[in-house]
Write a structure and sequence with these properties.
494 residues; Rossmann fold; Isoleucyl-tRNA Synthetase, Domain 1; 3 domains; four-stranded antiparallel beta sheet; 44% helix; binds adenosine monophosphate; binds zinc ion
Length: 494
Amino acid sequence: MKLYQQQELHIYNSISKTKEKFTPINEGAVGMYVCGPTVYSNVHLGNCRTFLAFDLVFRYLKHLGYKVRYVRNITDAGHLENDADSGEDRIAKKARIEMVEPMEIVQRYTVDFHTTMDQFNALSPSIEPTATGHIIEQIQIIKKILSEGYAYEVNGSVYFDVHKFNAAHDYGKLSGRNLEDMVANTRELEGQSDKKNPQDFALWKKAEPVHIMRWPSPWSDGFPGWHLECTAMSTKYLGKHFDIHGGGMDLKFPHHECEIAQSEASTGVNPVNYWMHANMLTLNGKKMAKSTGNNILPHELFTGENDILSKAFSATVTKFFMYQANYRSNLDFSNEALVASEKGFNRLMESYRMLPEINASTESNFDVSKWRQSCYDAMNDDFNSPILIAQLFEAAKAINSTKEGKTSLTQSDIEILQKTMHDFIFNVLGLEDTANIQSNDGNQLADAVNILIGLRNQARANKDFATSDLIRDQLQEAGIQLKDGKDGTTFSLN
Ligand code: AMP
Ligand code: ZN
């Protein structure tokens, strides 16, 4: 029996604004699409939060025994500087400024994205398609929408007719907007004169002569509108009706609203059963964003090279910090919060590592089966990772008090604790026990740190405390914490 047959998962559906029981279209299988990065600069920590939120979803669905096809695209064309179909293509602009080929920009930042996701121990999606690899599919969809009468061509560009679509469908059902309000609140913007209405959006844009990212089409040499790529790639790999579609909250409108419109106009079918949106990571109370410069890059965190950081933090600690908040809540980044998360994570790992040392008794004071189900209940409640982490701390408390001889655990309970903690900490949350590095024979980092510990011991024996303190402090700055105990000095990575 698969775990998903025993555990009832509920997902908060952004479209119904309620938690709904999750039932996949095909028993035992899940199709999930998540909008990927636009690869024109390094991903910042805010982007990472969204991708890590969906890594958790992917991991938990797999843990429950589902066969998951997880599609996350790379946007390498078509994403203009602003949402109103105007401005330069973000990638082309960067390429122009740096005087390189746009595909060099795409390559550089795709590699950066993959490296960052690896550092965070995020799993690779099952398929990672690119917008430029699916121009033909996008042109096919435009032809279909035109033939259904929901789009029109003007001067080589094709626009989606939002008003016509709204007469037969509901444009705004995801974002909770209605077209009359949008009309009332829209100023006629310059440069949009090709559109019948300002609410219409581009499916295909004719390229200006200077625009080098261009492809032939029946309408002009040009490029697809940004929203279209996700409709093309999700339909191609998951079908016209699939289970889960995710992205950051800021993509709800217009991007996801337009995806629904494009799908319904071309296939007649509502494309997605469960819409999931991750909330924003903020810095100084404002959304982290590439465009405003209000952001922190992952490598700044790992090296500590940013004025707001007192030290370096590991990827695992950062992830732990993110998962201590629900993915639907805002989360503000701060040095203090990271320091607190690091302490918490180290405490949890210390208790977990003590488990094999515990002597079994004939009875338990801790209801391990009930606790295990509480861990599942937390995740079944819309992937509620902060509650799961609180449950893991309950287990840590039970381990500590048993170690101190105040309570007891049976052998089988110790084994259930060990397996369940391992499953949730490493497989579901995808955290890494960075201190394990010490027990790994032949590990060069451990060898090097042990040499420094030896030098420090010598300095202390010679009463050269200036040198011994210097070694300790500089290791601390490099993210390596020494701990003096009665059996000698050990270290852990922060
Ligand atoms: P982009 O590369 O700008 O298309 O963004 C990639 C993903 O990161 C999208 O799902 C965005 O919604 C998400 N995102 C952007 N900024 C933030 C933020 N400050 N916090 C969380 N997610 C974000
Ligand atoms: Zn998308």
